[in-house]
Amino acid sequence: CVQGINTDVYEDKCVIAGSVSGILLRPMSPLPPDVIMIISFPGDILMRMLKMLILPLIISSLITGLAGLDAKSSGRLGTRAMVYYMSTTVIAAALGVILVLVIHPGNPKLKSNLGPGKKNDDVSSLDAFFDLIRNLFPENLVQACFQQIQTVTTKVPVPTNRTRGPPQFTIKRGLQYKSGMNVLGWYTYWNMLNSKLE
C-alpha cells in the first residue's frame, strides 16, 4: 500500500471524476474516433493488466491449494472441477445456439450491403505508440510467447440512401494479433514479478 495516500478516497475520487467526465462528454457526441481512442486507452491498459495477472494467480493458487491436500482429496476435487467445467461449457454452447436460432440477432441485410471492406495498412504514429504500450501488458503470457498485438485499419463503406455520387467510406480501427514473440510483455511481467519478490 502506498504510504500517505488513502487508496479508498483516491479510488472514490477517480470514480467520481470518470462519471462527471462521461456526463459532460455525452452531449458532445459524436466524438471523433481519435478522441474516443485516447479516452478509452487507460481503461484498455487496466483491463489488459488484470487479464495478464489472472492466469498466474489462478495457477499459483491451484498449486498451493493442491499442495495442502492429500492425493485422494485432490483427485476427487479435480474430477468434480472437470465435470463442472464441461457441463457449464455444454450448457453455455447449447444456450447460445438455441438463442441464435430463436431470436436471429442482427440484420443479415446489413452484412450484404457493407461487404467485407478493405484493409488500410497506413497506421498513425499514435496507434503505433498505443500498440507499444498494449504489448507491455499482454493479456495472456503463453500467447505472448508467439504473438503480439497491433492496430489494423479497415475502410468500411457507409450505407446511404443516395443512388448517385461516389461511395463514402469510414475508417474502422481494430486490434489483431500478429506472429512474433512479445519480448516486451515478457520483460515487463518478469520485471514486476522480480520487484514483488525482492
TrEMBL record:
Glycoprotein keyword on record: yes
Main subcellular localization, coarse class? membrane
Keyword set, alphabetical order:
Glycoprotein, Membrane, Symport, Transmembrane, Transmembrane helix, Transport
Protein name according to UniProt: Amino acid transporter
Task: Give the GO cellular component terms, alphabetically.
Answer: plasma membrane
Residues annotated as transmembrane: 49-69, 81-103
- Kindly name one Pfam family recorded for this protein: SDF
Q: Which GO terms describe its molecular function?
A: glutamate:sodium symporter activity; L-glutamate transmembrane transporter activity; neutral L-amino acid transmembrane transporter activity
Q: Does the keyword Transmembrane helix apply?
A: yes
Membrane topology per record: Multi-pass membrane protein
Q: Which family does it belong to?
A: Belongs to the dicarboxylate/amino acid:cation symporter (DAACS) (TC 2.A.23) family.
What domain of life does the UniProt record list for this protein's source? Eukaryota
Where does the record place it?
Answer: Membrane
Q: Name one GO biological process term.
A: L-aspartate transmembrane transport
